[in-house]
Structures are given as structure tokens and as C-alpha cells.
Amino acid sequence: MLATAIQSGKLAPGTKLPTHRAFAEKADVALATATRAYGELERRGMIVGEAGRGTFVRDLGLPPSLGIRQTASEGLIDLVFNMPGDAADADMLRAGLRRLAAAGDLEAMLRYQPHGGRTHERRIIAENLTSTLGPIDPECLLVTSGGQHGLAVTSLGLFRCGDAIATDTLTYPGFKSVAALQGLELVPVEGRGGVMDPTIWNGSAANGRCARSI
């Protein structure tokens, strides 16, 4: 019943669904049956539950995951994405968006932004980093659209296709993706004491195989 209504568009994306108990009473089914039905709809990517808010109809035009299709054997743990799991993140985002909507020139947020971020944003970031990194010139900072974007920009600025880069034996998958796209060779260097072994790295650099390390 719900699946048909969602697929037909009768229940539009963003529609809040009744609680499991309310749906069970309306459909005249057991609470356990309603819970299983909601679970199946979520498994199909038709609905999404948010802690403290309820259950909502998903936009079926959007991918059910982060948009990167992967195949993996059962029992494996996906280490490609490191995402915060704090349930309070959604509340922080909600509060931040409310403050943004109520403050200043909101129309400015809808226009193209300066490359590298706005000056006052870079100044705030520089002040925040000063306590750990020392004085930082905001003009030397660039605001990127996330860590992966930052890795890509840095790699394109430093390396050329065919370069060999020394990395830890266990390397961040996001950088491996950047290296594959840019045609870089990754040379694993075994570690010692939590860092790459300098003896092994020096050997790779001496024979001309690696000019840089990550």
C-alpha cells in the first residue's frame, strides 16, 4: 500500500509518515507487521528514518547511497568512507541553517562564490588553526568542497601523470582514487613507530623512483 503510493507519487518526497503504531492501527495490522513493512521500505530506499524527527518519503530519483557504486563480498567492512555517526549532527545542521537564514544578506549565498572561499571565511579558519599551527595568513588558505576535493586540487597542483608517490602501506582510499584518475604510481613504504620508515623511503628516493611522499 505504502510502496504503491510512493512509486505513483501520491506520497511526495519529504512526506512525513505516521509512526509504526499509528500505521498499524490505520491499516489494522499488528505492530510487528508495521515495523517489518517500514523496514522493508527503508531497505528498498523508499523511506528514511531520522532520530527524533520520524520517517519520511525519500526522493526516488536520488541514489540510495553516496553515489559510488561498489561491489563487495559479504562480511567485509567498507573503509572507503569515514563519516561521523553522531546523531546530534543533524540537529547542529538544522540550527546552523536557521541562523544562516536569519542573518545578513542571504541572497549572497545564492551567487557564485570567490574561488578559494570568501575572505572572512578564510580569516575565521586561520584564527581557528593558529592555536595549533601558529600564525597563518588567510590569503594562503583555500576553502575546498570537502577533503576529497582538497586532495584532488593538491595532487593536480603538485604531481604530473606518471609520477611515483611514496605512501604508507595502508593508504587513504580517497587518495588512491585520485592517484588512479591522474595516472600516479603509488609506492608503499613500510612503517615504523607510526610513520614511514625513513631508511626505506630514502632508498626509494635515491634510486629515483619517488620524488615525493604522502
Automatic annotation (TrEMBL):
Entry keyword annotation includes Transmembrane helix: no
Organism: Sedimentitalea nanhaiensis
Family as reported in the entry's similarity comment: In the C-terminal section; belongs to the class-I pyridoxal-phosphate-dependent aminotransferase family.
Protein name: Aminotransferase class I and II
GO MF entry, a single one: DNA binding
SUPFAM superfamilies: PLP-dependent transferases, Winged helix' DNA-binding domain
Sequence ranges assigned to domain HTH gntR-type in this UniProt record: 1-60
Keywords assigned: Aminotransferase, DNA-binding, Pyridoxal phosphate, Transcription, Transcription regulation, Transferase
Superkingdom in the source lineage: Bacteria
